[in-house]
Amino acid sequence: MKSWPFKVIGNLNDKPMIVVNYKDEEKHFAAEEISSMVLAKMAEIAEVYLGSTVKDVVITVPAYFNDSQRQSTQDAGVIAGLNVMRIINEPSAAAIAYGLDMKPFNHGCKHVFIFDLGGGTLDVSILTFEKGAINVKAIAGDTHLGGQDFDNTMVNHFVNEFSRKYKIDISGDPRALRRLKSACEKAKRILSSNITTTIQIESLNQGIDFYSSISRAKFEELNKNHFDKCMEIVEKCIIDSGMDKSSIHDVVLVGGSTRIVKVQQMVSDFFGGKLLCKSINVDEAVAYGAAVHASILSGECSEKDLQLSEVIPLSLGLETHGGIMNTIIPRNTKIPAKMEHVFTTHLHNQMNILIHVYEGERKITRENNLLGKFVLEIPPAPAGVPQIKISFQIDDDGILDVCSTEKSLGVNKKVKIISDKGRLSKEDIERKIKEAEKYKDEDKRYMKKVEARVVLETYAYNMRNAINDKDISLMLSSKEKEKINNALDLVFTWLDVNVIAEQEQFEYYTSILSSVFDAVIVKKINDERHGVQEGIMVGNAVKNKKNHWKQTLLKYSFIIVHAAATTNITGLASQLIVDFVKKD
């Protein structure tokens, strides 16, 4: 969190909130809101490409996301105005992409290891491909290990180097750290193909230009702990699957950070020097697999025989006497799943029971993640008499639903977990949906302003280039060029002063330019037309007049096209030409 380029605070319920300055006002956003903005933007991009509305989506998450994180992801989709059809693990989505790439795979059983190392998380999975079905055998991962961690070790290295060289500590300078991190990320990518590279940042701090170099060997030394952690997770997944690593047929790399040479080398060595599968795009595989899965769920895909079966990443259970974890559903259980557990009371005449639901692998509950708690009221009875059944049900998205029933005394009550710590309430979600719509409308208005400014700037620059063009310049008199230049100077001066303005203002100045330009060009066209009409009287007059007029139109249409290129601006001169062509 210390390396994040933004500030995080806790609200009244100790929920993390991201601090943002918006329109000179400090605003606090929950992680779900930020995610919803990203999702809404992605849907908008998809809509532009597809030319239709996007509402139904499949969202991928790191395989090791816990129940709360999956719930929050679903909330983010709702706030964005989307219908979340399914939440699937990223390695599973990559497996779908791999499965389509390696088709056919309906002969025999194939064991595939997916190694997904992205910017912030590591996910590994073992899957079996058999007769069109993809079954997840085991998953492991770390939601706090990825490319950003490699970047941060480099940043710390160069912060220390800067301190040694110049006796200045830049660790408290957010701007310097952002620039240094950007340079380190670039250096990391270069080191995937080169054995050494340089860091060059002008005026990093107090006007000091920072220059340094780093080798691939040094990069690997700095990140040794991270690389070792990656392999520990790989080994854990193999152990959990109950398989021997020699039975893995293919090892598939996914995620931008798998381009790191050391990562490829260590993964290959772990599997006995096996040639790694790089046939699928490491950056796009997850998105591609998710899109295919969405089309299967919507019934629009020809790959309907391609079935995906997921597992849960962490064990789920209850806290029993003494703070001990009683596992109800073990990790790597196939989902959807439903399991039950019956227990009784330890005290006489107990009237209520506080039930705590946890996820994790530790035997002591305080070391695991508390998902929620609820109170079950029961009639007084001797200890050991009540028979309380707890039912755990996990849906296809990997989200947990817990119910409790007391049967022995004829009481049949069902209670669901009230809420997850830090999760948005139903009222919060509804309020944030309305806020998201408000921001969406503001974004649309802002985009229209930006588009109007771009049109004005483009038209002005095109017009200036047009009248400065050697061929076009010969067609215009000095007075005509002066008239256009005066209008251009007016517009450029106004643009310099008004970086931000209303859409109507940009359109107003565009109309000024268009009218000045039209006045000059229309006059030129009309002058030429009158000259032709007065100068040609007999013989081939009609034919010659028409040919001359065509040449005139071609000449001035060249100027119009040159000036209005990419702006879709049409004026009187353009209309004059269009009318003539229609008549002709």
Automatic annotation (TrEMBL):
Keywords: ATP-binding, Nucleotide-binding, Stress response. GO terms for cellular component: cytoplasm; endoplasmic reticulum lumen. Its main location: endoplasmic reticulum. It comes from the Eukaryota. It is found in: Endoplasmic reticulum lumen. GO terms for biological process: protein refolding. SUPFAM superfamilies: Actin-like ATPase domain, Heat shock protein 70kD (HSP70), C-terminal subdomain, Heat shock protein 70kD (HSP70), peptide-binding domain. One of its GO terms (molecular function) is ATP hydrolysis activity. InterPro entries: ATPase_NBD, Heat_shock_70_CS, HSP70_C_sf, HSP70_peptide-bd_sf, Hsp_70_fam. PANTHER family: HEAT SHOCK PROTEIN 70KDA (PTHR19375). Belongs to the heat shock protein 70 family. This is Heat shock cognate 70 kDa-like protein. It comes from Medicago truncatula (Barrel medic).
